[in-house]
Design the sequence.
């Protein structure tokens, strides 16, 4: 039986969070640690989920590229994409108005998603809620990592799609996000729950988050 150990672990954002180590063996323990080190802490994840909560109103102007695929696939994928922009557009409009650096990254993630022209991506992800907090958290983690890890690869990921098709799109998303990511965190007063009460600042550096 695997021993469950909960230990403070440094996360991708630089914050320390409690992480449960449960995989058996030395290599399991190592994998667990790698996972913890390459994902965001609970507070940062919660902050992102809060930023991308469904919005009732709002319009975001975006030019959708022509989809590529068989005619029937394109037509179906197009309607799926329209449904996604209906639900995500208001969220993107809200992100656009925010001065929060994390909102800028979240918006870059959605921009990256809507650049995808392969009809099959939209068809295979027809049940995917791209606005779901965990999807956005995972995409932001992809953008933040210094190197890609196979354990985080996901066929529903816009990041993984562009990594295979055209990494220039990822560079652009990182650039859009970098100006604000590298500046000190901005306190907008909009989301008081943002400030972590227990998270410790990273040693020897400024966290891009919170
Ligand atoms: Zn954090």
Sequence:
């Amino acid at each position: 039986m695997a021993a469950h150990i909960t230990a403070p672990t440094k996360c991708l954002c630089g914050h320390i969070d409690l992480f449960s180590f449960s995989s058996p063996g030395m290599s399991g323990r190592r994998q667990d640690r790698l996972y913890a080190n390459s994902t965001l802490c609970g507070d940062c994840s919660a902050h992102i989920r809060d930023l991308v909560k469904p919005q009732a109103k709002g319009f975001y102007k975006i030019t959708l590229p022509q989809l590529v695929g068989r005619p029937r696939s394109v037509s179906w994928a197009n309607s799926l994409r329209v449904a996604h922009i209906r639900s995500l557009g208001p969220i993107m409009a809200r992100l656009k108005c925010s001065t929060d650096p994390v909102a800028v990254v979240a918006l870059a993630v959605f921009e990256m998603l809507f650049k995808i022209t392969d009809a099959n991506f939209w068809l295979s992800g027809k049940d995917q809620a791209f606005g779901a907090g965990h999807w956005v958290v995972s995409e932001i983690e992809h953008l933040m990592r210094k190197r890609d890890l196979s354990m985080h690869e996901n066929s529903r990921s816009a990041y993984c799609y562009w990594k295979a098709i055209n990494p220039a799109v990822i560079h652009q998303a990182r650039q859009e996000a970098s100006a604000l990511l590298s500046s000190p965190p901005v306190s907008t007063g909009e989301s008081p729950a943002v400030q972590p009460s227990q998270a410790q600042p990273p040693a020897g550096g400024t966290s891009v988050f919170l």
Observations:
- The beta strands are 5-10, 16-21.
- Residues 47 and 194 are 6 Å apart (CA to CA).
- The helical segments are 25-37, 42-51, 71-97, 101-114, 119-124, 133-144, 158-165, 167-181.
